[in-house]
Amino acid sequence: MIVVAIAGWLLPTLLRARRPAHEAECLAHLKQVGYAVRMYMADNDYRMPPRRDWHNSIRSYVDTPDDEVMRVIPGSRRDPLKCPLDPSPATCSYLYLDRDVLDYTMSRLNDSVTPLAVDEYFHEKATLVYYDGHVDKMPKTQWAYDRLMQWKIRRDLDHPESYAYELIPGTQKSPSFAPPPIERTERYLWPVF
Predict the structure, then answer these.
(1) What is the C-alpha to C-alpha distance for residues 90 and 46, in angstroms, rounded to an integer?
(2) DSSP assignment letter at 19
(3) How far apart are CA 137 and CA 126, in angstroms?
(4) Can you give the residue range of the structural domain that contains 54?
């Protein structure tokens, strides 16, 4: 009885202690995703992976399906497209932001501030990989603000299996002479009209 009580008391502490290791593993997975997208682009005339099937398009860049020893089972714990804290049977945990869905007024942002893929569900902070290859964490409230106010994107609610963002209906995809939706800051490189 005493052993069960001690185990019940220690279990939450042990689980919390493993969380930083899972976050570091998720950062490493997202870095691999960034490399895979860049390799895909180099092999495909610098076109981005298609939004609807992006994770399957880059699968051969994170996996070696012909090698029995190095093969990664999609959706397994070793799969770079899967967050280690994702309990679902899905083969991908991350959401993809294709440059083609960006609002025109945001399309010239430099690679160091443009997110490529995001894990916004499974950690205390949102984990992002950017187009220049670096990974970062930011508070979920800040990411939600950036996503909804600056990027004008949301998860594709009609096709959640796509693991991609879509433009919010009504967002422009062509030039406009309306003022930008947020104030200019030094962080952003705005297009010249």
Answers:
(1) 28
(2) H
(3) 6
(4) 2-167
Distance CA 179, CA 177 (A): 6
Rounded percentage of the chain residues whose pLDDT exceeds 90? 15
pTM (global) more than 0.70 = yes
Token pair belonging to 146: 């950036």
User: Is 172 a domain residue?
Assistant: no
Element (H, E) at 31: helix 2-43
User: Would you say residue 98 lies in a domain?
Assistant: yes
Higher pLDDT pick, 189 / 153: 153
When divided into structural domains, the chain yields a total of: 1
Residue 131 pLDDT > 80: yes
Q: What is the mean pLDDT of the chain?
A: 77
Spell out the residues 6+ positions from residue 190 whose beta carbon is closer than 8 angstroms to its own.
Answer: 105, 108, 180, 184
